[in-house]
Amino acid sequence: MWNPDVYLNFADHRGRPFFDLVSRVAADNPRRVVDLGCGPGNLTAALAERWPNATIEAWDSSPDMVEAAREKGVDAQVGDIRSWTPKPDTDVVVSNAALQWVPEHAELLVRWARELPAGSWIAVQMPRNFRAPSHVAVRTVIRREPFANQLRDVPFRDGKVVSSAEEYAGMLTDAGCRVDAWETTYIHELTGENPVLKWVTGTALRPVIDRLSDEAWHQFQQQLIPLLNEAYPMRPDGRTFFPFQRVFMVAQVI
């Protein structure tokens, strides 16, 4: 299960890209704002604050995340992003750190651009760190025994999961949008013991955790920790700097 509490341990770090993304959406008074991959709902609430007159629609594939969002007053529903289609009054679609889990997300973006009304907005942010040392370390442990057989078909993020800002700009322009796309590397300042492990436990390691027993997951962590600590050493002052690359696109349908 994807633990909402673990995810929210880094709410400030994970929230900054969301606000960097949404700040570029110049919708004045949208009728309907949709959050696809709403997670525990803390950022969805910010959409309601920015556009108080809009109907807020929120989806997530995780029942635990949806339950956490509902506890915050967000009218969230369990659903697969791939099956979502815009209602006629949809003026803003936001997807923050979710579409990287959908292999065919490029096709979805093009379809949404063609289905949304003229003047509407699509705002998407995805991690683009799948070749980072943190992911290399996880893949190293996955290939070891006793995990290799049990995790051989786990879809851990490898290869070209997410494209470049230039590629997304091109495909959305071809779909009839005016596009603002960019990439940013955030240097997150983490503290505490094994902070990078705690970070990836809340997101990237979700498929691994779902597959392993509690005992096997403990063993997995014990093998992963030294690799992460070597790649991201703690400074003498107790801080660990964790670079994290992300890609953004804000598109307005023409």
UniProtKB/TrEMBL annotation:
Biological process (GO) annotations? methylation
User: Per the record, a Pfam family?
Assistant: Methyltransf_25
Spans traversing the lipid bilayer: none
Kindly state one GO CC term assigned in the UniProt record.
cytoplasm
Location within or outside the cell = Cytoplasm
Q: Write out the entry's keywords from A to Z.
A: Cytoplasm, Methyltransferase, S-adenosyl-L-methionine, Transferase
Q: Which residues form the Methyltransferase domain?
A: 33-115
> What EC number(s) is this enzyme filed under?
2.1.1.144
Gene3D superfamilies per the record? S-adenosyl-L-methionine-dependent methyltransferases, Vaccinia Virus protein VP39
Q: Does the keyword Lyase apply?
A: no
The molecular function terms of the Gene Ontology recorded here are: trans-aconitate 2-methyltransferase activity
Major place of residence: cytoplasm
Which reaction does this enzyme catalyse, per its entry? trans-aconitate + S-adenosyl-L-methionine = (E)-3-(methoxycarbonyl)pent-2-enedioate + S-adenosyl-L-homocysteine
Its family remark reads: Belongs to the methyltransferase superfamily. Tam family.
Q: What does this protein do?
A: Catalyzes the S-adenosylmethionine monomethyl esterification of trans-aconitate.
Name used for this protein in its record: Trans-aconitate 2-methyltransferase
Q: What is the lineage of its organism?
A: Bacteria, Bacillati, Actinomycetota, Actinomycetes, Mycobacteriales
Gene encoding the protein: tam
